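stage 2 :: seqdesign
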């Protein structure tokens, strides 16, 4: 019997690239900058990223909060629209890399985040640009560590799909499964035989199905195990009985000796 397990959710390596206008273009950033209240900003983000069901869908609500607080942090730090759009893209890419697999990938995600940050802080076109300075790098890193990576397991639990385990058993020495009825009919048609003629030509009895053979094999194995277990229990009971009888004999001898000593003293 062989047990085969297959997982198709292995963590994937990600390459950092410039992502300034990846998810938010200039027009979207203008709309975001014009949103003054919390409700306006959340409504705008839900429209831009198809999260209109955030009131009934927990995943949409979590994503909306993640996007909203990313914009709020960018506003508090005084980022321009290029910096805000870039940081938003970094957060979104890191989140998607995190939840793409149910397996642990925190180290890979943090490495990917670090590469994205440095990709937008060093001037080396066309591979990287100097959009954030050193102080802003520290602020972005602290924000992601204290917000996203601190709650990494919660995001993983809420967004990653469940693992489905498919188990297949292969038994060595089992007969091949019988061909389907359609294949049997096709073979008989090619031979020019009717079903009655084909049945008449069969000389042997009906073949045993693989399920019946497997059931008989399991029953025989269980009977053997039960027989061995019964013999083992009988042997242990016999040994225990012999030990108990030996102790009784010793006690009887000791009792008889003590009685003899008592009679001698009385005389």
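stage 2 :: out
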């Amino acid at each position: 019997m062989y047990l085969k397990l297959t997982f198709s959710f292995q963590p994937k390596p990600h390459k950092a690239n410039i992502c300034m206008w990846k998810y938010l273009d200039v027009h979207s950033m203008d709309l975001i900058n014009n949103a003054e209240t919390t409700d306006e900003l959340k409504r705008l983000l839900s429209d831009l990223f198809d999260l209109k069901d955030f009131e009934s869908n927990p995943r949409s609500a979590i994503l909306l909060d993640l996007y909203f607080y990313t914009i709020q942090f960018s506003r508090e730090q005084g980022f321009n629209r290029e910096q805000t759009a870039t940081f938003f893209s970094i957060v979104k890419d890191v989140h998607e890399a995190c939840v793409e697999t149910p397996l642990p990938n925190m180290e890979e995600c943090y490495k990917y985040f670090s590469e994205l940050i440095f990709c937008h802080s060093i001037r080396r076109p066309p591979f990287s640009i100097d959009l954030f300075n050193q102080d802003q790098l520290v602020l972005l890193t602290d924000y992601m560590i204290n917000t996203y990576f601190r709650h990494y397991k919660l995001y993983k639990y809420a967004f990653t799909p469940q693992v489905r385990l498919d188990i297949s058993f292969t038994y060595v020495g089992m007969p091949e499964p019988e061909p389907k009825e359609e294949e049997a009919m096709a073979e008989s048609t090619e031979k020019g035989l009717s079903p009655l003629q084909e049945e008449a030509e069969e000389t042997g009895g009906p073949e045993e199905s693989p399920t019946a053979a497997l059931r008989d094999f399991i029953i025989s194995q269980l009977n053997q195990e039960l027989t061995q277990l019964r013999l083992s229990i009988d042997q242990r009971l016999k040994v225990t009985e012999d030990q108990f009888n030996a102790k009784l004999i010793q006690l009887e001898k000791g009792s008889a000796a003590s009685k003899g000593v008592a009679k001698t003293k009385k005389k």
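stage 3 :: structure notes
- Residues 145 and 224 are 61 Å apart (CA to CA).
- Strands lie at 2-4, 121-124, 128-130, 168-170.
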